[in-house]
Amino acid sequence: MIFAISVVPLLYLTGMGVDYSSAALREAQMNAIADAASLAAVTPAMMLQTDSASITQAQNAFNSQASAVSGVTYNSANLSVTVADTVTTRTVTVTYTAASQNFFPNVLGQTTIALKGTSQAIGAVAPNINFYLLLDNSPSMAIAATQAGINTMVSNTSTQGGCAFACHESHPSTDNLGNPSGEDNYQLARNLGVTLRIDNLVTAVENLTTTAQTTETENNAHYQMAVYTFNTTFNTVGAMTNSMSTVSSDASGITVEEVYSNNYLTSSNDNNDEDTNYDAAMSGINAIMPNPGNGTNVSGDTPQEVLFIVTDGVEDEDVSGSRQQSLMSTTECTTIKNRGIRIAVLYTTYYPLPTNSWYETYIASFQPNIGTQLQSCASPGLYYEVSTGGDISAALSALFQAAVATAHLSE
To answer: What residues of the chain score a pLDDT lower than 50?
Structure first.
């Protein structure tokens, strides 16, 4: 008798548990479909369409999947899709109601359990951006691009004690380098078929213009670029332009800085090889870049600004009458970032050169900290390091995509 009495509530609890568990699972499935539908309405492609097109996209995405959920009764009339636009964003809200069919309708006294859910997605219009490429073409960028190339240079400069740098000199005879035809190390590298890091940098910039043009089209945004180099001075290679072919052409002529001879910038200027002036470079580029806008197409608005720095990170300049070989100062980086300009840094690793006495004396002590210092100069998420032998083109392209992906619009 006791068992008979207990069967009734047990059946009730079991039936209720099964039906409510099934309803919860089905509602989770429907909510996932709503999430997918709202996101489908704010893709980059849909952001170029009208509000009604976004609504239709969300409706079609939801209806095609919701009708296939087993055990759910759904009517498309019970779907609501709304769109709210600002100048820079689109918010799509998907709301639905449906019903989960019960396995034990007599137990609960009802044939269905109500389901409902809401999903909201926000998409932003890709901003217009001006890119400033600040490229290190100081003598240290004349190191071979691979370890094999470094080894080749060292083995072919034994009279110099084994020099991995392809220094570019207009009067190498002054230094008695001992090269086969009296040429400088830059020409020696060319004769030996050694690819230098500056060569890879030029190729990387040329390839970047293709990436930028493709991305610009995909995002329906407007990108412009300007190219600058720095060594003893800050130099303009190509002014700001929306022609990526012009940027590529400008970059193709970049080579490592040519000096007169060791220690001499010119025949009459003994600058003690102080050939990497970050202070001049950073203050020069800061003076050129205007305050950034939001990057919208609204009348009167201006593009966002992004500074790209490609360097090996070692400062070598005159400071108060003395040669300073040190980490790059980040003071100007902070000044630029405080203006709302983002900084992307590609660090071409300053490779240890134990066969070079100058490196061992002046650089080795802080070489492990170069990357950390450059990363502190960069904006969050916009730092990349490429080691000797690494693909500078791929690294620069990845950094560009990161800069575009992390761009945002403010209302």
So the answer is: 3-4, 6-7, 10-11, 13, 15, 408-411
Supply the pLDDT for residue 356.
77
69 to 17, 21, 217, 348: CA distances (angstroms): 20, 15, 38, 53
Residue type at 13 in one-letter notation:
L
Q: Which stretch of DSSP H or E encloses residue 207?
A: helix 197-219
- Consecutive H or E run containing 281: helix 278-288
Task: Give the pLDDT confidence score for residue 142 in this predicted structure.
Answer: 93
Q: Which CATH architecture has domain 2-124?
A: Roll (3.10)
How confident is the model at residue 301, as a pLDDT?
92
The token duo for 243 is 């022609």
Sorted by sequence, the CB contacts under 8 Å of residue 283 that are 6+ apart come out as 234, 332
Nearest Cα to Cα of residue 204 among 145, 257, 277, 259 = 145
The whole-number pLDDT of residue 411 equals: 35
Q: Report helix angle 331-338 to 278-288, nearest 10.
A: 10
Residue 194 tokens read as: 């050694």
Q: Residue ranges of the alpha helices (H) in 289-391? A: 331-338, 357-358, 370-377
Contact assessment for residue 340 and residue 127, using Cβ atoms and an 8 Å cutoff: no
CATH number of 129-405: 3.40.50.410
CA atoms of 78 and 321, how far apart (whole Å): 78
Cα torsion 409, 211, 236, 257: sign: positive
CA dist 197 and 156 (Å) reads 18
pLDDT given at position 7: 47
Give the rounded distance of the alpha carbon of 96 from its chain centre: 38
Q: Which of 145, 138, 171 is nearest to 387 (CA)?
A: 145
Enumerate the domain spans of the chain. 2-124, 129-405
